Fold these 3 entries.
Entry 1:
Amino acid sequence: GYRYPTAAIKDRCGISKSMAARRVRTARKLESMPMTAAAWRAGLIDLCHVDRLARANQPHRADAFADAEAM
C-alpha cells in the first residue's frame, strides 16, 4: 500500500509528483464545492475549469464560494 495519496496517484496514473499533488489538492477542495463537482461529473465543465475554481477557492473567498455553490 501507499502511505500518501500523492504517491499512489503518481504511480498509478504515471504522472509527476507535482501533478499528483495538485490532483489531491483539487480533490480535497471539491469536498467543499459540491456544485462544481456535480458539474464536472456531468461533463458541463472540464478539469481545467475545476482546477481554476479550486485554486480560486481560498479562505478569504470562502463565503463567496459558499454562496455561489448554494445557488
Entry 2:
Amino acid sequence: DCLLSRGLGDVYKRQVYEIIDETGPEHDKNFIAKAYVEGMFEVTANGHTKKHAEQRAAYEALVYLKKHGQA
C-alpha cells in the first residue's frame, strides 16, 4: 500500500514508483526513486534502500500536491 493511495484515495491510482539510479559501493548503496502521476507531476528522492527511496519519493509527491492545492 503506497503513501499516495492512502493519502489521496482513488483519485491518484496511476502513481508509479521507479528506481532510476543507484550509486556507491555494495556496502553503502544510494538509490534514487522517482514517483509520478502520469500527466501531472514527477518528483525524485534518495535513500539507502530501495524501499526508503520510494517512501521518500511518495512523501515528496504528497508535499508537492499539498503545495499545489491538490491534497
Entry 3:
Amino acid sequence: PGNIIDKWRRQRTTLQDNLQQTLAGATQALPVEEQHQTLQCLCTELIDYVATGHFRVYSCPLSLTAQKPKK
C-alpha cells in the first residue's frame, strides 16, 4: 500500500484523469443522469484528495512541532 504521500499521489493522478475526461467532453454523450453521477464522483474524489492533504499531510509537521520537548 505504501505511505500517505504515495497514496496521495495516486489520488491526484486519478483525480487529474477524471477531470480531464470530464472537461474534454468525454461525458457529453452520456445521458444527463450519468453526467450528474460522473460529476458527483469527481467532486467526491476532489474532497477526499483535499481532506487527505489537510488532515494527513499538512497537519503532520504541525503535530511534530507541537510535541517538541520542553527545555
